[in-house]
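Dear colleagues,

As part of the handover before I leave the project, I'm documenting each prediction I ran so the next person doesn't have to rerun anything. This entry is a single chain, and its sequence is reproduced below.
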Amino acid sequence: MLAKDAIKELKKRSNKSQATLAQRFFKTAKGEYGFGDIFIGVRVPVIRQIARKYQLLSLTEIEKLTSSKLHEVRLCGLVIITMQYKRAKGEVAQKRLFDFYLKQIKKGRVNNWDLVDVTAPIMGGYLIPRSDSMQLLKKLARSKDLWQRRSAILFTFAYIRSKELKPTITIVKMLINDKHDLIQKASGWALREVGKKNISLLTGFLKDNSQKMGRTSLRYAIERLPKAERKKWLNLK
């Protein structure tokens, strides 16, 4: 199996009108967060289908996908990493895949919100049992790079699934003053998921921090609360 064959299949399934819509939706114009990204118009279900077909690619071949200038090709490579991670057995295999994935983040290849959101919550599972995980999450949260900061939040979704909620609270607190819309949305989303597991933890966080939070983050965090309670928190802003 070769990366070039996967790329050929992705290009065969491309659609110009879909690509034009994606370019706008993912904010690729000058000055926007996705500036310079190139779409060819392949829908996510199709990308996943092709990723399954090529899920046995070597990391060398996968990197040919993740280093592509084409968004859907990078997404395909990243999805393959998650597929391999789910099937990996043993510490050595999992570490190899996680380290490879982290390298893609640091090289700026996981560089739009869908690329982060589809993959980081899965790959974050590697961090849960490790004592130095919070050190990595905090380092990512302090990064000047938008996508590293968003990755820090999305990694903690793996903790939330395991009912370990403190890492999410820690990272959200670190990013509470972040003005970027995509960080505010991710932070609020993460808090909302925390609330599904422990409503008192969410309300306690809001009591201490709601006035410091951006309005976007707050709206996302309280989205599932009763209407009267949502109104109360918004009126405190």
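The CA atoms of residues 146 and 180 lie 8 Å apart. Residues 127-237 form a domain with the Leucine-rich Repeat Variant fold (CATH 1.25.10.90).

All the best with the project,
I.
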